[in-house]
Structure formats: structure tokens, C-alpha cells
Design goal:
Layout: H1 2-19, H2 28-37, H3 50-62, H4 68-95, H5 98-109, H6 112-117, H7 124-137, H8 143-159, H9 164-171, H10 178-188, H11 190-193, H12 212-222, H13 228-252, H14 254-257, H15 265-280, H16 287-301, H17 308-331, H18 347-352, H19 361-372, E1 378-380, H20 383-396, E2 403-405, H21 408-413, H22 418-430, E3 436-438, H23 443-446, H24 448-455, E4 457-462, E5 465-470
Parallel strand pairs: 1-2, 1-3
Antiparallel strand pairs: 3-5, 4-5
Helix pairs in contact: 1-4, 1-5, 2-3, 2-20, 3-8, 4-5, 4-7, 5-13, 5-17, 7-8, 7-9, 8-9, 8-10, 9-15, 13-15, 13-16, 13-17, 15-16, 19-20, 22-24
């Protein structure tokens, strides 16, 4: 049985390894890389993914000869390959049907959220692989398997809490050894619950987060119940994109509607329904990757039946579809996807095309801005750009005289008057006779027009940033 899954492990490692990024990436990817480099654990802050940091820390020491930034992208590629193989193994053990096992693995292999998340240093592929390992161990009947199932599920939840959507319906099936499951889960969650007693300073922001205020902020910032209807349409489109035409056809085909020997389908279906409801009310820019747990749970609940030829056609069709979609939207002038355009980033290709090898925009941006900054300057940035600047500066030892404040703009945006908050911060820095550089000029964030008209500042372009001085 193990040998049946080896080809899928190889396919995942090959596809994701070839697709993996080689340099810094925007936002969370750079943040998580910094966390691993600085051993930022424990933390009870839901956005810190402390379980990922623990595994990444071990990974960096095992592969000490590789560039750490590239190495952590490869960690996601390996985790993604393991996840695909585990999907195949689980479905084969449940159903005993190779068409279903191969069909589920083929759909998972090129599902947009798993492919994308396996090409960059993100927590999703690792959390999913750990959750699936817990599901597989739950098929065994021993104390060691029970403890291992709890440990994998706990560490997966510490990497990303929503991985419980996949693992929890399987864990509750245990009739014996439940204390071993619970013990393993408590140990796996240690990177999170230890943060209740003490959390080190965040390497990126310098804050100590993880208390009720942090959880309250996440709920207020990312959960919007009023957007339920719009979120439902978005989620349906993302699920269809992840499954692809062959995957959708296979799921609705009569051969797939036959349940077969599935473990606790009602509980699995309930978990997926509740998770879908959460995603419909979540911030839309986070849903595309978070849908990986929904899609994987669906594949385990209703494994699609595809012949070997159908599996091959699905993989090829899905790759062509994603590339064509990115190209087509760009060709008709919709390449920005209606979201913020970062410097050196083409939104359609960045978000829709999972292959990240050769995407050097974040590194070019950081090098350009740091090279152009005056001696001793302070760079005020938002999180997406600031994380990249901090990672490049720290990992390469560049321009240590320049101080990057990676969330200064985010802090200003939560004020009643963001432009006034930025004005006060710029004035305080200028009073110390240090140059102030804004990392970008995107109006909803950086308010250059208001800073010039209301507060008398003059902005002059400096590389990809803007030098701000008094008129």
C-alpha cells in the first residue's frame, strides 16, 4: 500500500520543488521566514503560526548549507508533496479503489491553494500535511498511533488552527486510548499554549502579542458577517478553480456520489459546512489559501473517481487553465484583480499562477529602496512591503544604518485621522534630524496628497519610495 503512494509523493515533490520561490516574497512569507530565523516561539497570537516556526527552525538546522530563505520555500514544497501522497494513501485505505485514490491525489496536486501555498514559505502546506498524518494514524489501533495522531493534529493546529477542519473529525473516532490522543495534542500545541506564560518580542514589530486583545483584533479585522452573500460567491468560485473542470465533473458523477466506506461522513460534512460559513465571512484576500482545508476535506469526504488518463488530463488542463486565466485577465485590462498593486508585482500572475520560481520583484524592490535611502534614514512602511524590507536587510546585512518600521502605516490606518497620525510620526522623526522615506505612494495607505496639502510636506520620489521633507 505504501508503494502505491510513492509516485504521488514524487509528483508533488517535483512539481512544487520546481515551482518554489528562490528569494523573499511579499507579506506573510517574509514574516514567517523572519520568525524562523529568529526562533520566535512560543506565541499565543493566532497570526504567528508558532507550530510552523518550530518545524522551520528544525528544518533550517537540518539543511544548514542552503540559503535559509530558499530553504524555507522548499520546506513548503516538501510538505505539499507529503500532503498529496497522504491524500492518496488515506483514500486508498478507506475505499480500496485506485481510481478514487488517484483521482483525489490528482485533484489535490494541482488544486490552486495547495500548489500556491507549497511554492512559498507559508504555513498552509505544513499544517495540512500534519493534519493528514493525524488522519492516517487515526486508522491504526494502538497507543503509539493514538499519541502520534494527537501530536500531529496539535502541531498542525499550532501551524494553522484551521487545519483542525481536516483532522478533528477523524480524531473523535477514537473509542480507546483517548487520553493518549489528548496527551499528544497538548504536546503538539505547546508552541501556542506556552505563549500564555511568556511571549518574546515579535522580531518584525517588536510587540508582545497573544493576549485577548490580539484575538479581539483578529476577529475585528478579518471577520465580517455582513459580507456573507459576497463571500459565498467568492468561495464557490475559488472551490471551482481549485477543483478544476475534471475535478468538478468527477465529484458530481454518479460513481463519486456512492459514499463507500467513509469514516463518519456526517461529522466531516458538518465540519466542512461550518468552515465554509467562516470563510464566507472572512477577509476575502485571505480566503484563497485558507480554502485548502475545505478542498482537501471535500476530497476525503467524496473522493472523485478518475481513470489514469483522466488524472493526467486533469493535471494538464488545470495548469493550462491557471496560466490562461492569468494571461487573459491581463490582456483585457483586469490584471490588477481589483486589489492593491505593489511595486514590482503583477497581481494576476502573482495570485493566479502558482509557479513562483523566477519571481524576483520583492527582492528587487527591497534592494532598490535600501540602496536609495539616505544615510541613517527611517523607512515608514506597511506590512506587505515592510516584511520584505526587514527580511532582506537582516538576512543580507544590507544598510544597517537604515531603520525600517514595517507596520507604521498599518498603525496609522487604525486611527481616526490616518494622515494626521502619519504627520505626527514624520514630524517626530524629522525632529531627530533623520530623513524620512515612505515605502510606497499608494493613496489609501500613504496619503501623500493629504500630507502635502494639509500638513505642508513635500514628497520626492526616491527609487521605489518617497523622501518626505518640509516645504
Amino acid at each position: 500500500m505504501v508503494r502505491r503512494s510513492w509516485p504521488w509523493l514524487g509528483a508533488g515533490l517535483l512539481l512544487y520543488g520546481v515551482s518554489a520561490a528562490t528569494g523573499p516574497m511579499w507579506g506573510d512569507c517574509s514574516k514567517l521566514t523572519l520568525y524562523a530565523l529568529r526562533s520566535y516561539v512560543p506565541s499565543a497570537n493566532p497570526g504567528d503560526h508558532a507550530g510552523w516556526t518550530v518545524v522551520a527552525w528544525v528544518w533550517l538546522r537540518l539543511l544548514f548549507w542552503l540559503d535559509p530563505v530558499r530553504s524555507l520555500h522548499l520546506l513548503s514544497a516538501v510538505a505539499g508533496g507529503v500532503a498529496v501522497a497522504l491524500v492518496h494513501r488515506l483514500v486508498w485505505e478507506i475505499t480500496g479503489e485506485e481510481r478514487r485514490a488517484g483521482g483525489a491525489a490528482a485533484v489535490a496536486l494541482v488544486a490552486h491553494p495547495l500548489w500556491w501555498g507549497s511554492a512559498v514559505a507559508e504555513s498552509y502546506a505544513l499544517a495540512l500535511a500534519l493534519a493528514l498524518a493525524s488522519c492516517l494514524l487515526s486508522q491504526r489501533d494502538s497507543r503509539a498511533a493514538a499519541f502520534g495522531a494527537g501530536l500531529a493534529a496539535g502541531l498542525g493546529a499550532a501551524a494553522h488552527v484551521f487545519s483542525l477542519v481536516v483532522s478533528l473529525p477523524w480524531l473523535v473516532r477514537w473509542r480507546r486510548c483517548r487520553w493518549f490522543v489528548l496527551g499528544g495534542a497538548v504536546l503538539g500545541l505547546a508552541p501556542v499554549w506556552l505563549g500564555v506564560f511568556d511571549t518574546p518580542a515579535d522580531p518584525l514589530t517588536g510587540f508582545r502579542a497573544g493576549g485577548p486583545e490580539s484575538w479581539g483584533w483578529h476577529l475585528a479585522a478579518f471577520v465580517h458577517p455582513a459580507a456573507l452573500a459576497r463571500g459565498l460567491g467568492l468561495l464557490a468560485g475559488l472551490a471551482a478553480l481549485a477543483l478544476g473542470p475534471f475535478g468538478v465533473w468527477a465529484l458530481v458523477h454518479p460513481a463519486t456520489r456512492r459514499r463507500g466506506r467513509l469514516p463518519g461522513p456526517p461529522l466531516g460534512a458538518l465540519a466542512l459546512a461550518l468552515y465554509a460559513l467562516v470563510l464566507c465571512t472572512y477577509a476575502p484576500y485571505r480566503v484563497p489559501l485558507m480554502a485548502v482545508f475545505l478542498v482537501t476535506g471535500l476530497l476525503l469526504l467524496r473522493p472523485p473517481s478518475l481513470t489514469p488518463l483522466g488524472q493526467l488530463l486533469h493535471v494538464a488542463t488545470q495548469a493550462v487553465l491557471l496560466a490562461t486565466l492569468a494571461w487573459g485577465l491581463s490582456a483585457v485590462g483586469l490584471g490588477d484583480l481589483g486589489v492593491r498593486q505593489l511595486p514590482e508585482r503583477h497581481n494576476a500572475w502573482h495570485f493566479l499562477w502558482p509557479v513562483k520560481r523566477g519571481e524576483t520583484g520583492p527582492e528587487r524592490y527591497a534592494h532598490s529602496l535600501l540602496a536609495a535611502a539616505p544615510p541613517g534614514a527611517v523607512v515608514l512602511s506597511d506590512f506587505n512591503l515592510g516584511a520584505v524590507l526587514c527580511l532582506v536587510q537582516q538576512s543580507e546585512g544590507l544598510r544597517e544604518d537604515v531603520e525600517v518600521v514595517p507596520t507604521a502605516v498599518d498603525d496609522a490606518l487604525v486611527r481616526s485621522d490616518p494622515a494626521a497620525a502619519l504627520d505626527r510620526r514624520i514630524a517626530a522623526i524629522e525632529a531627530t534630524e533623520r530623513a524620512v522615506v515612505l515605502a510606497d505612494d499608494w493613496s489609501p495607505y500613504y496619503r501623500l496628497g493629504e500630507l502635502e496639502q494639509r500638513f505642508g510636506w513635500v514628497a520626492r520620489q526616491l527609487g521605489p519610495g518617497w523622501l518626505v521633507t518640509r516645504r
